[in-house]
Each structure stands twice: as structure tokens, then as C-alpha cells.
């Protein structure tokens, strides 16, 4: 007998095809669009933002074509609290959060999954590009679209109720299939990085919420070399947008090495000073097999992959890279893989 599946439908191509595949496989599927924005009209800026009225209409149309019941669930308040406020608070604390990862952890596979289970559903299906084989998360066959990183924070329990029907397909195949199935969203562009910042201007979004406060930019010796309007506008490894009055003696570009929110100080230095090999993380979530062969770690979404070994220490996790990485920011996740399989993850606390 088929499962009762709740298909999370964003109004985009991927989730429409994911829902269609699950329905075709004989499961009893209901589509749900999550209204995540408190003011859906305000996001209509041309770029595809989060949860516009148009997105919910596209999702409904896709559900009609597939022939499944469809609902809209208002999760705006949860999203505001667990994703947007968390995002702002993390930047205010000098860290660099990944809101997609937080949304998967707190909204799609927590708030939505809880409600789905309470209503008698067995699983939540999404259009994420990742594979799930017997509850074990693995990379998508399309490396350019692989989203296993932003799902790597999910627990075994969360994964046991997840279905990702697209992991064996490339994005091109999904688009083609959408067109063939008459899902009118086939040509819709991919959503951009942060769905609740429709114009993509993260710094302005943060400045609107955290205000601006002038602070010093110092070099590695502590000498003041410039100023900034708020430490929250920066991330480790950033080069652009630094107002430096005293260039480095060697004339080389300088990068953000660290962010100190309490004293509102940004420390900059040469690229070489960004290189780290030891990553210290918080408590790990182990969600895959305890494999130790072909170990790699990914330190940001779409980031490079490093060979590594790791050790659990005092409730945290220390990861040693086999070559230096740059731009490793506290607040991002370190997702550990054995080959293509996710074995666990932990939040980065510091790197050296
Ligand atoms: N507002 C929403 N309502 C319901 N489900 C959503 C919503 N936003 C995202 N999702 C689910 O999360 C998945 C991943 O979201 P992401 O923003 O990465 O989408 P995407 O890769 O652009 O896919 P899509 O083409 O389906 O929008 C989607 O495929 C969908 O299943």
C-alpha cells in the first residue's frame, strides 16, 4: 500500500515534479504551499523572492495538473522566529548563518513534519536535489544542484520521514519532465540564495534591522586601518566593501579575518592569513553510517570539499583538513561525507 505523503510545493519546478513523481508511484499525495512571508505582496520585486501570491498560485496550478488536493499553510510566524530572527541574531553575534539549512531543520522537517505526522501523513516530500536511500542521505547525481549540504543537519528521525524524489535526476531532466507533464512552471527561474531577501542585498537587510554603528577595521597588529558601519555587514573571507584608509605596505588586498561583535571590530589581513586546517565545531548530529573511509567535509553551501579526519572532543567535534581552506566562517555547518554519503554535521565555532 502507498504512503500518505505531504508534498511541500514552493511553486517552483523542482517541487512540482517531485510531487508528480510521488503521486505517479502510487502514493496518496497532498500538496502544501507554505506561506512564509508576513506580507507576500511586498516581495514582488521582479527577482523571485519568497512565497509571493504568484508562487502560491503556481503551486496550486501544479497540484491541479497532477490531480492532488492542495492547501496553503501559514507558517509565517514560525519562519519569522526560527529563520529570519535567527539569521539576524547570528550576524549580530559575528557569525555567518545559512538560513536554508535552518529552514530545513526548523520549518520543513520540524514544524511542517510535526503537523503532517499529527494529521496522519507518513512523510514529507520536497524537491531538494539529494538522494535518500533507506534513510541515508547522499549527494544528488547533479553535482551543480546537489543540496545534501543544507539537509545535512537533519537528524535520523527527521530523515526517516523525508522523501527526495529528484536525487537521481539532473536539473535539466527535471525541467524537461516538467514541460512534458504540462507543469506550467517549467521555465521559472531557480530561486535565488536567500528567499526572504528578494533584492539580494543582505547588507542592507541587516542594516535595516540592526542599525549602523561605526567601528574600527584593524590589521593583525591591532593598528587601525579603516572604519566600517556595522560588523554585521561582513563575513570571514570577504574582500569587497571594506573601507580601508591605510593600504597594506605590500599593496596586497586584505580580507576579513575575524569579526568581534562586542567591540564592533573587524580584523583584516592578507589572504594567506585566512588559511585554516583545524575546524572546531559544536555538538555533532550523526545521521548516517559510522563510515570512516573516503572522508570529506564541506564547509559552506556549494563550497569546496576537503579530505579530512575528525575527532569528538568534550561534546564537540574537531575536523582536521588535509589542505588549507579559506573563508571558513563560524555559524556555517561542517557537513561530513563518506564518499557521496552524509554521515553527520556540526556547526562551525572557530577555525585555525
Ligand atoms: N514556500 C514553500 N512552500 C512549500 N514548500 C517549499 C516552499 N519553499 C521551499 N519549499 C520546498 O523546499 C524545497 C527546496 O527549496 P528551494 O528553495 O531550495 O527550492 P528550489 O530548489 O528552487 O526548488 P523549487 O523549484 O521547487 O522551488 C522545494 O523543492 C520545496 O519542496
Automatic annotation (TrEMBL):
> Which residues are tagged with the site Interaction with tRNA?
128, 332
Please list the residue ranges annotated as the tRNA-specific 2-thiouridylase MnmA-like C-terminal domain: 278-348
Molecular function in Gene Ontology = ATP binding; methyltransferase activity; tRNA binding; tRNA-uridine 2-sulfurtransferase activity
Residue ranges of every copy of the tRNA-specific 2-thiouridylase MnmA-like central domain listed in the record: 204-269
Query: Which terms in the GO cellular component ontology are assigned?
Result: cytoplasm
What is known about what this protein does? Answer: Catalyzes the 2-thiolation of uridine at the wobble position (U34) of tRNA, leading to the formation of s(2)U34.
Q: What is this protein called?
A: tRNA-specific 2-thiouridylase MnmA
